């Protein structure tokens, strides 16, 4: 794939992402996507066989960029494992509060919608989320090793935290405020410090 081809494909994905995090996958029609991207229908089908395949590519591209940002944070040698995780969750609040609209969480937006719509897209979301959880687990392990995190099971902790934050993000959408995520932050802090979470 040459540079121009990659650039056009990425442009379609970027425009599609902005539309879909705002409106949902089902509510974005192909004509609307093409109009916003400024590309002809033939160009779309040159890169994607169907809207569903576009959805898979969108999810994979989102997680690729997400992992790169997470890797940059988690590789900072000046931060303890605990500080890295708390920085991550604080950033999560900023992103899902609309302060970082270009990074809004596709997992929160699409999980319920595409699970019933497309098994391929569901599996792409699940794979991406699982990879993020593995990165969180590695960070928890680092925190255990550097003495900043006090838990016994890094894998269970990473799963518990990610699941809690997905739930908190959904409840924040329903409440239209960040209070559920603020509560999740307090629970996360206590959990990582080895204290009773409630």
From TrEMBL:
Residues 6-66 form the HTH tetR-type domain. GO terms for molecular function: DNA binding. It comes from the Bacteria. Residues 29-48 bind DNA. Keywords: DNA-binding, Transcription, Transcription regulation. SUPFAM superfamilies: Homeodomain-like (SSF46689), Tetracyclin repressor-like, C-terminal domain (SSF48498). It holds the Pfam family TetR_N. InterPro entries: Homeodomain-like_sf, HTH_TetR, Tet_transcr_reg_TetR-rel_C_sf, TetR_C. This is TetR family transcriptional regulator.
């Amino acid at each position: 794939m040459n540079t121009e081809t990659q650039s056009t494909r990425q442009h379609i994905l970027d425009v599609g992402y902005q539309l879909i995090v705002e409106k949902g996958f089902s509510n974005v029609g192909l004509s609307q996507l093409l109009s916003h991207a400024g590309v002809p229908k033939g160009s779309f089908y040159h890169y994607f066989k169907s809207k569903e395949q576009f959805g898979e590519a969108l999810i994979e591209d989102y997680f690729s960029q997400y992992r790169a940002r997470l890797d940059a944070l988690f590789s900072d040698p000046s931060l303890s494992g605990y500080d890295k995780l708390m920085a991550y969750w604080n950033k999560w609040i900023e992103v899902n509060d609309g302060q970082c609209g270009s990074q809004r969480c596709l997992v929160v937006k699409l999980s319920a919608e595409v699970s019933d719509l497309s098994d391929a897209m569901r599996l792409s979301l699940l794979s991406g989320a699982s990879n993020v959880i593995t990165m969180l687990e590695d960070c928890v392990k680092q925190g255990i090793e550097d003495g900043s995190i006090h838990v016994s099971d890094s894998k269970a902790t990473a799963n518990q935290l990610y699941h809690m934050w997905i739930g908190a993000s959904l409840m924040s959408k329903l409440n239209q405020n960040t209070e559920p995520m603020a509560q999740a932050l307090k629970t996360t802090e206590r959990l990582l410090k080895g204290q009773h979470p409630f």
